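Entry type: protein chain
Record version: 2
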Amino acid sequence: MSTTTNDAYLAGLNAFYAKSFGYLTIGMGLTTILSFLIYSVPALFAIASNPIVLIGCFIALIVLAWKASPNKSASSAWAQFLGFATLSAFVITPYAAMHTAANVTMAFSAAVITSAVAGLYGYTTKKDLSKWGGLLMIGFIAALIVMVINMFIGSSLLSMGISLIVIPLYLFATAYDVQMLREMYDQQYGDSEKSLAIFGALILYINIKGLFIHILNFLGVLND
């Protein structure tokens, strides 16, 4: 690859990442604004706190994440992402309301900063992170099983332990996903770039949201 071609490729790649992170910022901003609105309006907070609504939103989030694909049309991918960010506000707000404002702010800041560091590693490292995929999947499935078990046990110590394990899993997943996006960009160079950027924003959003929840859980248990 000539120097000119390589420079053009890097410029295109960086523009692609910038676009994806821009969409990510919009999604996180939407969730934050809606969360403040839900928390501030008693009627909305009552709806969000309803167990049936929470379960429905959670199931809808799983379906949206499962159906996420870089091969969708840009308009469909964008609608899916905004829907995911909106539903996330209804799931996150009741949980965040159980914690202090200081812990929520600290957890959110920590999630964003550590995700940025992990993402930078995924972007700059020369190591092939593809081998992490299977290990991450096993780790998340194991953590999910333990979380379900702890729903019946109700152990705060086990809850803290789960978060201590899941937090680094999400950081590894962020680095892995950033590198994976580069590989997908290479495969789809010049084709469906906007849809891929939105898809990237969605999977990175999921990682940051997971980090936020588990960091907040860890701080909450730690301060009890």
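Comment: Residues 3-40 form the longest helix (38 residues).
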